[in-house]
Amino acid sequence: MKNYSYVFIICVLSSFMLVAMKTSAQQNTKNKLRENGAVVFELPEMDNVIIKKDIPYHNVSGTPLKMDIYYPPKFDFQRKIPAIIIVLGYTDMAGQKLLGSQFKNYITFVSWCKIISASGMAAIVYETVNPKKDILSLANYLKSNEDKLGIDNDRIGAFTLSAHTPTAINEVLTGLDNIFQCAAVYYGFFLTKDFKYLPQIDSISKNMGFMTPRLPDPITWKKDIPVMIIRAGKDNVPYINQSLENFYGKAINQNLPITLINYPDASHGFDVLDDNEITRQIINNTIEFWKFYLK
């Protein structure tokens, strides 16, 4: 694994983002018909990505858990490419109650998978009954089927958001068999053991069904995995930005390679709700972050 001895800290204000150049491939979704819940970003060939659905990756009491893998258009399966896994922190049962859909069929995640795969990487989303254990089972399946799947296990990144984050960031920063070389987090909870609002978050989690593992002592966190965090300045989810600030201070003290983008006017779910050029530039920056660390 690569070693990074420096820290990226990028606090991006709206005025900076407004002058950023969007890529020629990036499409404006403003005033276009867009499926409810889809990400406000488009790339050419998104509708032509290759989707391998319902691949069994693990059995639980005789019932297979399945994943969907999205590949770039015209991918020939003669080589191995990087992959981004959307890491989950809810069970599918909780997701069904919350969204009326399994997470692997949730339109926001389907949209993200198409964006990622149209960018030249594979994207993976999966079923889960035990988020902490199932991401490990998924990783083991990928390791055992690298050639068949066309995925390079030395170039795997994570994407997570919102209340999925505690499960994902624990695996990224403390997992013994962690397969992730980098991670991007949008408007997420970061739960350290000393965060003063843990009882309130536990109460919210009982109602909503997400997992709340605590990060151990910061000195044990992995020091060589770049993490990009997007903070939504107008996030109205209780305690979410306080948890980020608490985590960020500890990460800097440990000299972790953290990239923080502060999006002052963003709402929770800005990748779906805030249809503007700043959002699209941040999504483009996220894609470039993955590509840089998984090259």
Topology:
Elements: H1 14-18, E1 50-60, E2 63-71, E3 81-86, H2 92-99, H3 107-118, E4 122-126, H4 131-144, H5 146-149, E5 151-161, H6 165-174, E6 182-186, H7 198-208, E7 227-232, H8 240-253, E8 258-263, H9 270-273, H10 277-293
Parallel strand pairs: 3-4, 3-5, 5-6, 6-7, 7-8
Antiparallel strand pairs: 1-2, 2-4
What do you see in this structure?
α7 links the parallel β6 (about 180-185) and β7. This protein has a single domain, classed as Alpha/Beta hydrolase fold, catalytic domain (Rossmann fold). It is globular. Strands 1-2-4-3-5-6-7-8 form an 8-stranded mixed sheet, sandwiched between helices. The chain has helices spanning about 15-20, 90-100, 105-120, 130-145, 145-150, 165-175, 200-210, 240-255, 270-275, 275-295, and strands at about 50-60, 65-70, 80-85, 120-125, 150-160, 180-185, 225-230, 260-265. The protein is α/β, with parallel strands linked by helices.
List key phrases describing it:
295 residues, Rossmann fold, eight-stranded mixed beta sheet, 10 helices, 8 strands, 20% strand, disordered N terminus
